[in-house]
Amino acid sequence: MGNNARDTREYKALQTAYDFFNKKFFKGELPEVFFLFDYHVKRAGGFFAPEKMIYDNDDAATHVVCLNPDYLYRDVYEVFGTLVHEMCHVAEYHGKEKKPSNTRNYHSKVWQDIMTSCFLIGEVNATRTSGSTRIPEDGKFKAVVDEYLKSYEWLTVKSSDAVKIDPVKLKKAKAKNKVKYTCPSCGSNVWGKPNLSILCKPCGEEYICLESDEEGED
Question: Has this prediction a pTM greater than 0.85?
Answer without folding.
Answer: no
